[in-house]
Amino acid sequence: MDIEITSEIAENAPSIRKPRSDGQRNRDRIIQIAKVAFSENGAGASLDDIAKKAGVGAGTLYRHFPSREALLEAVYRAEVKNLAITAEQLSQRLTPGDALRECLLLFIEHLATKKIVAAALNGLVSSSQVFEENLPKVREAVTLIYERAINAGEIRPDVNPMDHIRAIIGVTFFGDSDDWKECAIRLVDILIKGSRPL
User: Model pTM greater than 0.90?
Assistant: First the structure.
């Protein structure tokens, strides 16, 4: 009798929830799609379109990200994490000089995302916290790449990585032209060439 009851309960029980890993995959996919959407259409990109392209319902998107600001913050945090991880990978598979250039180009992409996020989060209390919390991670990732290039003799030891970073940030945030990214890429090559041993 107990076995029959147990079987009946099992048959009529509601379906078991998806594992948490599915939820994490959905979240990661939404962030990935959102980054592309925000890059192409600005911070006002349609959240419904993002959900559709991510293969989830609007309810799933809002369950993970209850507001546009929350999604923008998540995109930015993911970019910082990606920058740190990729910088380490670059240092392992490329020569120090090539790794440095690729890392700075990756930093430009990071700034492009930050530019969108900063404009959208402007005035929110959490916005300054988001950037301040993640600044050390960005600085550490870039500094390690520079140290490796300096130790390999490809960059002079008197070069301050943060001077280069500030110059790239200047082109990014204070350039009014639409071709600011192309300007930033050209600046990377100028900075590296000017930092080589005499």
Answer: no
